[in-house]
Every structure is written in structure tokens, then in C-alpha cells.
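B., you asked whether I could sanity-check this one before it goes into the benchmark set. Here's the sequence:
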Amino acid sequence: MHFNPYGGAAAALAAALVNADPRATPEDLTRLLREHDYKPLTGLDAAQARELTDWAARLSPVFDHRPDRVDLLNALLAETATKPYVSTHDGRAPHLHFAPEDAPAPHRVRAFTAAGLAHAVCEDPTRLGRCARPGCRTVYVDTSRNGRRRYCTTRCANRVHVADHRRRGTRG
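And here's what the prediction gave me:
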């Protein structure tokens, strides 16, 4: 499945923020944003890092298959989104912005991730999820061809399958 490039990148950033350590430093979060090609970004201060950590906690329930997921997304969009416009800053190809380029980084990231999750949910709501391994709280955006992902990583899937295999083997 091919996600809208905006929705895909923004949804992936939303997942990374949700999965980040809630005690992440401003430097950790700046690095995370840069790893997800979020530009322009000079760096976050402690207050901005707290804002993004709080925002990540609010994004987290969107990855659960809850009946109120659309309501949650609409509330996030209402809080963050402005008039969308096409930008070509820093020599980049035309892309959508939902917040002014000169807004503080947390404001831009909130608008970007809320809009990206909305795109992903509208395209295929089953593509956002949380790992099915008991005890794992990691979220993901399923970009697989068949859209049947249930675990955050192959490692989590293997743990579940090995545990199931061992349980079946002890019954005999």
C-alpha cells in the first residue's frame, strides 16, 4: 500500500514520538525529529521537549482501535490545524504545511502529526496499531503490502510464536 507521502511521513513521526522515552532530553527529541527528516529544525529547549512529550501521550490512543478514534483525531486537528498551504522551503519539493513555517517547532510538529494521522486513518484505519505482544506498548504504522501487521517488530512476533510453540509442546 502506498500512503500519501505527507500522511506516511507524518504518521511515522507520530509513531516515533509515541514510542520515544517520556524522559527523552531535548537533544534526543531533536535527533528523533531530524531522523524523520523534519526540517527546518535548529533544536528544542526543555519546555519544547516537554510539549512534545505531552503531545505524544495525546497521540498514543489514536493507534488503538477505539470507537472514539475519529473524535480524538478531530479534537487534535481542531487544536492544531490552520489553513493548509503548499510550501517549497529549503529547496524541497512542494509539500503540504498545516502550520506556519515560522511557528515554534512544537506547534508545527503537532499540526504535522495530527494531519498525518488523519490522512492515514482516512486512507485505511487498520494501518495504525499497537503491538499485540502482551506487555509491549509500541505503536506502528503498517506499510506492509498486505496490511496485516500485528507486532511492532519481528522480534516481538517471534517471542509470541515461540511462547505459543512451547505451550503447545508441554501439553503433549
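One thing to flag: The chain has one domain: 5-126. Otherwise nothing jumped out at me.
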